[in-house]
Write a structure and sequence with these properties.
Length: 123
């Protein structure tokens, strides 16, 4: 079974997670894969807990999608270290990570369009 984990930074303010929760809810209705949300810090579940949940559910192929705008230190260093630790813990599953979602041309175009729309809608 295939699974996707949306991996976000996390914040102290619970309202910060709402867009990510909405993204996960949307994917749960539109994707055939199991979808979970995990956070690097300050919020739960962490990536390790999310992977554990998916493994317990029978998932053997897990893709982590960093929902970051760019590949800063968390995506370039912290995430690969977490992935390596989890691969050691679960050697029978395929665990991989994509680039930061913000590096996708479709996301950049959508953000640019949204920024222009928001700027031109101001009175």
């Amino acid at each position: 079974m295939q699974a996707i984990i949306l991996f976000a930074h996390g914040a102290r303010d619970p309202a910060w997670a709402r867009p990510f929760e909405a993204m996960a809810a949307h994917l749960r209705h539109t994707s055939p894969h199991r979808i979970d949300l995990a956070f690097l810090e300050l919020m739960q579940p962490g990536l390790e807990a999310a992977v554990e949940t998916q493994v317990q559910a029978g998932c053997d192929q897990i893709t982590v999608v960093p929902v970051f705008l760019g590949a800063g230190g968390h995506v370039r260093r912290d995430l690969p270290a977490l992935i390596d630790t989890l691969r050691s813990r679960y050697p029978t599953i395929t665990l991989r990570a994509t680039c930061a979602v913000g590096e996708s041309p479709e996301v950049m175009a959508a953000l640019a369009d949204a920024a222009l729309r928001l700027a031109t809608e101001l009175p």
